[in-house]
Amino acid sequence: MTDSGSRAQPRASTVQANFAGGVFSAALDGGRAGATVSFGLSAVVATTDDGQLFSVPFGAAELSVAGASGKMWFCRSADRSITIFSEARGFPQALREAGRAQLADKLAVLDSTAKSGSRRSLWTALLVLLGIALCIGAGVLGMRQLGRLSVKALPHSVDVQLGKLAVDNMDVGGSISHDKVLQDAVQLALARLDRARPTDFKFQIRVVESSVVNAFALPGGPIIVFTGLLREAESAEQLAAVLAHEMAHVTLRHGMQRIAQSLGVVAAIQLLFGDVSGVMAIALELLREGAINSYSRDQEREADFDGIERMRRAKLDPAAMADFFALLQKRGGELPSAISWLGTHPELAERVRDVRSRAAGLPAHKREPLGIDWAEVQRHAGKVVAPVAPPAAP
Amino acid sequence: MEIQIRNRPSFANLLVRLTRGDRIVAESDAMASMSSAISLKTRWNGGFFRAVLRRVFGGESLFINEFGTESQGELVLSQPFPGDIEALELKGNGLFLQPGAFLACDPGVTMGLGYAGIASFLAREGLFRLKMEGHGRVWFGGYGGILTKDIDGEYVVDSGHLVAYEPSIQLNLGMAGSIFSSVLSREGLVLRLRGQGRIYLQSRSMSGLAQWVNNHI
């Protein structure tokens, strides 16, 4: 009667411990119940909370480890009518002790499968995580490439439209200066640089009153130069260097690339297929909020080198760019407004080095001065200087 | 306390008739209507930190409502999505509930939060699950009809269709068929449930609905 493990009287137990667990049996109302699991001389015994008793003898028991936690031990009777289970701590050890000889080989089989199972699942988990990490990495890289590709497919008119909308709608941070001296100076420098390397972009330059030592360009051609820059630059060539750098951002379409990357893959795809209007609206918002103020390091380096080349072709000294960066570095502490420039142009030391070595490596070329009275410009930009000599003849 | 599950199977709700001394614990915001004689006591769902964990990971609310009355009254509890409600009496055994499935229980039942494992997460069943334990009744609901199945061996359930299962069931991730069948049939990842015990499935899945609606917008 006790062979197939029916409801039986418990034998005197040699192992005293009790464990929380449960039992499956058709004899129970609902088929299952929580129970206290303990051990008899040769059986696993379960007592439900309302006193029903079930036992599974060791000899014919079927053991397995599974469950949602992976640590639940099941003892099933030979005719499969009763299953006693527990995932309590200490239960497996108590089971080993109580079962000893009778369960030895069954336990041995379980031990080996459990070990390999957990090792395998650990490997699987690691592989999955690695896979996810690779996908994310590939996605990020892919997005940048996709951004660049989609921008290549866009005509320049998109840049121009976007830039115009942005500059019309944004707060440039100061009032436009109508000082003729300043206007003439920047226009002269711009014209010289533009002629040296014509593109189909039309640059429109605006001078804005502000202590900020900065200049920036929007996609398509609008360039803003702050009077702070005009005050602090040491020569007209340095102004030209900055302009050449900004023009490079326009001709190399860095702003558009940043927009494409920020907007993500969806926008990139939309741009590729020519659906510009929706994307433009978002891009405008991004530009206005200055979310795309900072170019990546690669883009800055590209702009530096392109600017150097433009300076060379315009018969100006490219080293002026490095001089200006060095000036910013040196004056960094004195000019609080310089911080905003530094914020978008990090690692000046490295760039000074790179620009100088690049400029030095270029073949010597004829130089022609810009012909701008820089001291006059600085004065008009608000710089307070010692008594000024009469302006040199241009 | 008299409890009736009405308007089954599509828009099931619980009608609870309480008299003095009866209490029922329910998910926050489950109350649809009640007599003015019913009083409501809100407390943290198992203590502050546990409550936060349950909210963030278990899809349950921060608070739990305990309804009682000094005289007598009735209370209607319902869930936000259309579907059936199932009742289960726990007798010291446990039940895992998927996030959002819990509706109400007797005060003697404890609610714990457990880590569900990577398999569960990848099958979009959530990273955590609620564990109900103790003595008393539990009411839980699902989207669509609730199908009860006793399994002994292996059973395949598509992701999004699992509502509740006993702790003796192991969750494994699998593919519906070969890699090609899985991708082309769009069955994708499925859950292979293994072990002996009872599982509760819902006949509809929320993600399925979301995708369907998306395709028709």
Summarize the structure.
Chain A is of the alpha+beta class and 394 residues long. Chain A has helices at 91-153, 156-169, 180-196, 227-232, 236-251, 254-272, 276-288, 297-313, 319-331, 338-344, 348-361, 374-380, and strands at residues 19-25, 32-39, 43-48, 53-57, 62-66, 72-76, 82-86, 204-208, 215-217, 222-226.
Radius of gyration from the alpha-carbon trace of chain B, in angstroms: 18 Å
Shape of chain A: rod-shaped
What proportion strand of chain B? over 45%
Average per-residue pLDDT of chain B, rounded, comes to: 85
CATH H level, superfamily name of chain B: Mitochondrial biogenesis AIM24
Which structural category fits the helices and strands of chain B?
alpha+beta
Helix content of chain A: 40-55%
> What characterizes the major β-sheet of chain B?
11 strands, antiparallel
How many strands, what sense, and barrel or not for the largest sheet of chain A? 7 strands, antiparallel
The helix/strand series of chain B, from N terminus to C terminus, equals EEEEEHEEEEEHEEEEHEH
